[in-house]
Structures are given as C-alpha cells and as structure tokens.
Specification:
Chain A is α/β, with parallel strands linked by helices and 223 residues long. Chain A contains 6 helices and 14 strands. Chain A has one domain: Glutaconate Coenzyme A-transferase (3-Layer(aba) Sandwich), CATH 3.40.1080. An 8-stranded parallel sheet of chain A has the order 1-14-12-9-2-3-4-5, sandwiched between helices. Chain B has helices spanning 13-23, 93-101, 138-144, 204-210, and strands at residues 29-32, 51-54, 58-64, 82-90, 107-110, 114-116, 121-122, 147-151, 163-164, 177-181, 185-190, 193-199, 215-217. The chains are: A alpha/beta (223), B alpha/beta (218).
Chain lengths: 223, 218
C-alpha cells in the first residue's frame, strides 16, 4: 500500500501515543528529523522510549523532549556531549533510564529487528562492562556477545526525497540510521524536502524501498 | 616505509602524526579516531592513495570543510563538517559498522587511557564515580580493523605509565592493539610481548625503568 502523504509534521505524528517506543534518525544534526521531533513535542505524547545515537544536543529537538521529561528511557551510544545538558540533568536526577549500546551494536540491533533476526553474536563489547549479564560464546576461538533486536512502534526519519510509493533517497552522511530505522518500526514516518510522482526516482537509486514507509510529509528545504 | 630512527628530542604531536601517516600502507582503507588521530590525515600524501572511512557512513572522506564547502549533511564522526573526494561512497550505519566489524578496514588509529601489554585497550570510560558513560563507536573501532594502532602520551599528568601490565580502567576491547605511538617511544605488541621500535628523548634503559612491563628492543 502506498504511504499516507501527511499535510503537516503535526499530522504525520498524530498517531504517536503515550508509552511508544520511537526510533529517531540522525547523527548529530545530520539526518535529524527536527520538524517531526518538534511536532512530537507539540502532540504531547509522553512516557516514551527513544532510540537515537545521541541523547539530544543544546536546546532543540530530542534535548527538549528530555528536558520536559517526556522520555522515560533512552537507548543510545553516545549520550554525553559538551551540549547534552538536558540529558545530563535528567540522568543525574534519576528521571531517565539509559541503555548504553556500542554504536555498531545499536545499528545491527535495529537492522536485526527489521530483518526478522532474533539475535546475533557480535565481537563488539566482548569482555567489557557493556556485555555484563549477557550471554557470550566462543566461536572459533573468539569471544562474542549475544545482542537482541530493537523493535519500535514508530520511526521518525529524515530523507531527501520520496516518491508517492514511499521510495526514498537520502543525502550524504544524513543517511546514517534512516534506512535501518525505516525497517525496524511498525510505522515509519518520514520527512522529506519533496515528494515526487512515481517514476521521479530512478529505481536504481532507491535506498529505502517504499514497502518500509508508512507516512511521508514534504516540508520543503533549502538547496 | 617504517621509520625506526631514534631522536634526541621527544616527538611533537605533528611528528607523531607524521610517523603514523608514513606507516600506513599505500592503498589502505583507514579510520582515524577523534582527537589526535584525526591529525594523521594532514600528513597522508596523494601518492599513498589512502581512503578514509568515517563510521557515520562514508568512504572517501576529504579534508575539513571551510567557508562555502560547509554542508550540514556532510560531517565526520566528530560531527565536524568535512568534504568528499572523487570516488566517495555513502552507506547507512549498519553497513558502515559491518564494514568495520567484518575486518574490511586495514588500519584504525585511536587514542587511549591505558593499554595492557597484551593489547587490551581502555579508552571509553574512566570509571569515575558519577561520570555519565558514553561509548559511541569506540568498542567497534577497537576490534574491527585488521590493525589497531594507538596514539597517546605515554605518561599521565601525574607521571604514571599508560602502558600497563593489566588495565585498571574499564576495557574497550581485548587484545586488539598492535602498535602504540607515544612522544617518547613507539611500541609493537606481539605475542603478549612489548617491543620498542624507537625511542625519542629518552634512552631504552630510562624508558624500561619508567614503564611497568617488560620491554624488548625490537
């Protein structure tokens, strides 16, 4: 089924309810779906579990959701940054749960969820604090840790362009988590600069096939 | 070209970066960690034909972007705007880390808090009370490349050796480091032994007295 084309960011996130688990794309500001996050802020959903590489920067986007105590748990690889003051404060106050995951394991856990994989053994993190309590196995003399998939109710993603079938192309390093997050959520909500007619994207250039995309909103964007 | 010459003076940070750059094989695929390792790119020559990987999803990364080149969609792992070189490729995060974990990168250069004689690396967490932990790609980088090299100062501010018998800081990766570049010596780690390739502003005997692991002259 072709995705719903929402008429605004607010319309795109309207179905997100309290207690949802949400994958949010972006690495730093590149690929961060800022308008969708702002709309999530406005829609009032709370008690959220958020999956993102970071835990918000400065006074925008995810950082504000955390500031307003709308996020009960964050799964990420790199929460602490020079400008992560809202996360730092919530964490120190005991108001947010942190599941810290090595970046590549985080990416693979998301990919696994989208690919129907029930778990995988990875060498990353073996013998470290982040593997404590997890099943391990020696395979051909090398240590591995069992990691499980990260499923979600929603994914908020920023891509460059979509066609009306939801086929997506991204731009440069803003691609980052987008393609895997689109596969791992029950509903992938994507903001793009423009939506083009079917045929407007060369099939050879499609990065995320529309099968993974549920809602698209065109927000324009600077060239 | 391996430079094994000793020098009378300690190496500057630029000289360390230059030595690392010279040691990178021609045509290699390389990931340079955040901090001192990033400086290595300034000393790679066009003739070397080295391709830089950044774990946020790119091969063929060029120099830091300036002026009108700055594009918020094109950043490195340190979130600094960079440029792309001809032949560059973009890919998503799972592919980027599969590339690393799968052993497709030739060299990864990282910083460190501590390294043990058998190559265990600590560089992600001091373990200090109340510190908010953050790991990023450190654990993936440590164990992924065919060779993991470290650049660091050999001694802490209070004069303790960062090259140790066993780690006191939390582990990033086990048995992963094969070479260490410091301002006073370059070390090769093989078979749980530490070989000294060159010394800088220090004699081998002085070095051996200050480092609490057995050293062998390479």
């Amino acid at each position: 089924m072709a995705p719903r084309i929402a008429n605004s960011a607010a319309d795109a996130v309207a179905e997100i309810s309290d207690g949802s688990t949400i994958l949010i794309g972006g690495f730093g500001n590149a690929g961060q779906p800022m308008e969708l996050i702002d709309a999530l802020m406005e829609c009032g959903a709370t008690d959220l579990t958020v999956v993102n590489n970071n835990a918000g920067q400065a006074d925008a986007g995810l950082a504000l959701l955390i500031k307003e105590r709308r996020v009960k748990k964050i799964i990420c690889s790199f929460p602490r940054q020079s400008d992560s003051w809202h996360f730092d404060e919530a964490y120190r106050a005991g108001d947010i749960e942190l599941e810290l995951v090595p970046q590549g394991n985080l990416a693979e856990r998301i990919r696994a969820a989208g690919a129907g994989i029930g778990g995988f053994f990875t060498p990353t993190g073996y013998g470290t604090l982040l593997a404590e309590g997890k099943e391990t196995r020696m395979i051909d003399g090398k240590g591995y840790v069992l990691e499980t998939p990260v499923h979600a109710d929603f994914a908020l993603i920023k891509a460059l362009k979509s066609d009306t079938f939801g086929n997506l192309v991204y731009r440069k390093t803003a691609r980052n988590f987008g393609p895997i997050m689109a596969t791992a959520a029950k509903a992938a909500i994507v903001q793009v600069d423009e939506v083009v007619e079917v045929g407007g994207i060369d099939p050879e250039h499609v990065i995320t096939p529309g099968i993974y995309v549920d809602t698209v909103v065109a927000l324009g964007g600077e060239k | 070209m391996t430079d094994t010459r000793n020098t009378e003076e300690k190496l500057t940070r630029d000289e360390m970066a230059q030595l690392v750059a010279r040691d990178i094989p021609a045509g290699a695929f390389v990931n340079l960690g955040i901090g001192q390792p990033t400086n290595v790119s300034n000393f790679l020559t066009a003739q070397q034909g080295v391709t830089l990987h950044t774990e946020n999803g790119m091969l063929g990364m060029g120099p830091v972007a300036t002026g009108e080149e700055v594009d918020e969609d094109l950043i490195n792992a340190g979130k600094i705007p960079v440029t792309e070189l001809p032949g560059a490729a973009y890919f998503h995060h799972a592919d980027s880390f599969a590339m690393m974990r799968g052993g497709h990168l030739d060299v990864c250069v990282l910083g460190a808090f501590q390294i043990s004689k058998n190559g265990d690396l600590a560089n992600w967490h001091t373990g200090a009370e109340g510190a908010i932990p953050a790991v990023g790609g450190a654990m993936d980088l440590a164990i992924g490349a065919k060779a993991t090299w470290v650049m660091m100062s050999l001694f802490t501010k209070t004069g303790e050796s960062k090259l140790v018998e066993t780690l006191s800081y939390p582990v990033t990766g086990l048995g992963c480091v094969s070479r260490i570049y410091t301002e006073v010596a370059i070390f090769e780690l093989r078979d749980s032994k530490v070989f000294v390739r060159s010394v800088h502003g220090i004699s081998f005997d002085e070095l051996a007295a200050k480092v609490p692991v057995e050293l062998t002259w390479a």
